[in-house]
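Dear colleagues,

For the upcoming journal club I promised to circulate an example of a predicted protein-ligand complex. I picked one with magnesium ion because it came up in last month's discussion. The inputs are reproduced below in full, followed by the predicted structure.
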Amino acid sequence: MKITAIKTILASRMHEPERQWFTSTFRSIKADGAFVQIDTDEGLTGIGEACAYGGPTQIKAWVDWLKPELLGCELNQPALPLAAQLHPNGRSAAHDCAVAGIDCALWDLRGQIAGKPTATLLNPNAPGRVRLYASAGCQYDWRARPEQLIEEALGFLAQGFSAYKFRIGTHWAWDKVTVERFLGLVRELAQAVDGRMELMMEGNQRLTEEQALAIAKEIERLGFIWFEEPLPMADIDGYARLNAAVGLPISGGESLTTLEQFRPYLEKGAYGIVQPDVGWCGISEAMRIAEAAARYRVDVCPHSWHNGLMAMANAHLVAALPNPRVLEVCMHQGPLQWESIAQPPLIKDGWLYFPERPGLGVTLAAEIEQRFPYIEGHYGINVER
Ligand SMILES: [Mg+2]
């Protein structure tokens, strides 16, 4: 079976002002999607979502650039042609996201050809469902109503979620927020949740090592599951010290796209959990990363933001892992997230069930480009106060 066509479908939707999400000085004003579609000479079509953080139009340009090398290729070829590989050490987000979208679409096709879910192709013992965690906590403002965080968490609990991750709120300097004030809110949240949901915290690389250590110790005491990217990415030694200082796993690596980039973090013990995202690195590379991480007894809990197709691809990755734990699902993406999918999967009581269809198990909604036409420009703005 040969590849006959490749295209990128871009989609957007402006968030209603009250649905915008924000953290630090950043505010997201729209939802984007970048979907790669690969057609074959035998009528099968594979789809994969590239992480829109690579920039939708730049991703499309890279897919177009890579296309000539892929057209005519046999699908049973074990690897992509050389130019369509990830950069080993480079950091071109758009390029790597384009490759990731292509790779996911190829895994969708491989599953369809085999008549099996992609997860089952990757691991014959893969379960047919994955547990989700509600990823949110970026609509509370330290100046207005920080308790919105607790209301939100209880809302997800009522929806049946068994795990919840939140961010550290608007820019602390605007409102003189200290570690103590922040931890006061965190304790209130933990008390309100009262052990009924697992809790994870996302630092978005905003903390100093001293702040991160104080927070890590307290949230370990509160029974949190992990502490994500508290420090700037480049500070591998700081991560290693922090990860060694507490029993709570320090997690990260969502923007790393190759095993080579993860390697120094693994070698130095920087992470207790790694978080590659198949929308950024592709399923093939995520499996390599997972295999290496397992040798360090480090679990994989992928990053997954944006739309339903990316959630599906990351869900197949989670199901294929030696220790399937949880899948992130963005709670702030709005209607584009699942309405971009023709028949969304069943999500019930905090679990995502694979549809009984081979490959990734979903198709794109037919009217996606008419319904969600791409809107030029960046998805976020920086706000001043
Ligand atoms: Mg993260």
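Two points we might discuss: The domain at 3-115+368-379 is CATH 3.30.390.10 (Enolase-like; domain 1). The chain has two domains: 3-115+368-379, 120-353.

See you all on Thursday,
B. R.
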